[in-house]
């Protein structure tokens, strides 16, 4: 049976729009990612999953999966309340109440590590830790970007560009009574999060591939140098974190790296179709309903405009997925309440039919739907609440 007929039959009768996760594909992706990580552990990027039951399923699938990279302190506390442990905040946190709630969980024995990249972050956490008589574990975020004339290749996040900035912060933490240095992280976003097989851009793809190659070597050098110099200072790191879904094949080759973060590869959203070195299965999507036919070769669906974050470009639009042969129009894209679609020859959709889309990014899909209908072997086997469905909205 073709995939469109398969989903249409499995989800028959569900009111649209609805989101789904294909567990057979999700499990296949989890297997493939575990394999791609080689000897490294994989920490789950929860921002790219946003569903506790999916997080649990992946963690239980293989012991290569250990721990979660959370995106806010509130989210980390929520995950702690739901029984998750080994939580690394992927980004610096500032609000005292949320940090204080995490202090309570740490006091009860949970492993929760804060991300920092400057002395101000350190001092802020120290004050809260001192007030509560607790020690906070911290991880230093290392900048992995590279500047070329006219191009900042990478993301703007940490001001720790090298040893010159790392040394004073590390010294401060090692001398602190309230902080413990447990790890370092270098996220080479320009390798992990940038596709190098974008359609219609052969020249840009070549340039990006070349730049990525340089970045892979540079990131490895920076992480190795940081690890060696910190060890020479007496720091005993529990982990060295690198990468994302898009850099599993390069991050895993670095001897000093102990774990790689991955999230997007499990759902494999639209943007993850454009990497030369891997392809995971499209495990998540959503259905919208055909409600009108403005002309013979067109249909219009109700809703559908779930556009992804980041710099605005057509690649951030959701991708019509099934049936094959339906495309967005340039002028309207995916709309707030209506999405018109051009149907290629041979594609005939009736009113009430579903059209399946894939979001450009992974976790953002879950901000639009309260549940993911879990399908396996042709039938719905569960309905998983998303963070939104659990009444949560962290960012
Ligand atoms: C710090 C960090 N590590 C890893 C990732 C990779 O996540 P994913 O596998 O979803 O691309 C991200 C994504 O933004 C990140 O911010």
Structure description:
- With 395 residues, the protein is of the alpha/beta class.
- It folds into two domains: 23-266, TIM Barrel, CATH 3.20.20.10; 284-388, Lyase, Ornithine Decarboxylase, Chain A, domain 1.
- The protein is 31% helix and 25% strand.
- It contains eleven helices and 19 strands.
- It has helices at residues 3-10, 23-36, 52-61, 73-81, 96-107, 119-132, 163-175, 189-192, 202-233, 248-251, 264-267, and strands at residues 18-22, 41-45, 65-70, 87-89, 112-116, 136-142, 146-148, 151-153, 179-186, 239-242, 259-262, 284-292, 298-302, 319-322, 326-328, 338-343, 354-358, 371-376, 379-385.
- The strands form three sheets. Strands 1, 12, 13, 14, 15, 16, 17, 18 and 19 form a nine-stranded mixed sheet that branches. Strands 2-3-4-5-6-9-10-11 form an eight-stranded parallel barrel, surrounded by six helices.
- α5 (96-107) crosses α6 (119-132).
- The radius of gyration is 22 Å and the shape is globular.
- The structure holds pyridoxal-5'-phosphate (PLP).
- Pyridoxal-5'-phosphate is lined by residues 45, 48, 69, 90, 187, 192-193, 244-245, 261-265, 362.
């Amino acid at each position: 049976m073709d995939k469109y007929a398969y989903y249409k039959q499995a989800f028959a009768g569900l009111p649209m729009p609805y989101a789904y996760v294909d567990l057979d594909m999700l499990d296949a992706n989890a297997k493939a990612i575990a394999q791609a990580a080689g000897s490294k552990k994989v920490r789950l990027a929860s921002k790219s999953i946003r569903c506790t039951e999916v997080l649990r399923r992946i963690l239980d699938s293989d012991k290569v999966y250990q721990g979660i990279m959370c995106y806010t302190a509130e989210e980390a506390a929520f995950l702690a309340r739901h029984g998750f442990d080994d939580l690394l905040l992927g980004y610096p946190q500032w609000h005292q109440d949320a940090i204080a709630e995490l202090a309570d969980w740490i006091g009860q024995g949970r492993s929760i590590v804060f991300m920092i990249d400057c002395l101000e972050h350190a001092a802020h956490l120290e004050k809260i830790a001192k007030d509560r008589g607790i020690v906070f574990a911290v991880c230093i975020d290392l900048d992995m970007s590279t500047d070329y004339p006219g191009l900042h290749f990478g993301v703007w996040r940490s001001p720790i560009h090298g040893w010159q900035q790392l040394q004073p912060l590390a010294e401060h933490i090692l001398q602190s009574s309230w902080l413990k240095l447990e790890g370092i992280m270098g996220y080479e976003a320009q390798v992990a999060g940038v596709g190098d097989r974008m359609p219609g851009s052969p020249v840009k793809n070549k340039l990006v591939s070349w730049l990525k190659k340089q970045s892979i070597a540079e990131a490895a050098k920076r992480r190795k140098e940081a690890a060696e110099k910190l060890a020479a200072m007496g720091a005993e790191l529990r982990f060295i974190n690198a990468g994302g879904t898009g850099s599993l094949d390069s991050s895993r080759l670095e001897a000093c790296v102990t774990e790689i973060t991955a999230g997007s590869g499990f759902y494999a959203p639209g943007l993850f179709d454009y990497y030369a070195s891997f392809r995971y299965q499209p495990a998540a999507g959503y259905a919208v309903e055909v409600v009108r036919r403005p002309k013979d070769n067109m249909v219009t669906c109700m809703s559908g405009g779930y556009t992804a974050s980041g710099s605005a470009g057509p690649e951030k639009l959701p991708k019509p997925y099934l049936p094959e042969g339906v495309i967005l129009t340039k002028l309207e894209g995916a709309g707030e309440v209506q999405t018109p679609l051009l149907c290629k020859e041979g594609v005939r959709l009736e009113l009430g039919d579903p059209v399946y889309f894939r979001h450009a990014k992974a976790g953002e899909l879950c901000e639009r739907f309260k549940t993911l209908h879990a399908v396996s072997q042709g039938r719905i086997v569960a309905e998983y609440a998303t963070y939104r469905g659990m009444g949560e909205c962290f960012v």
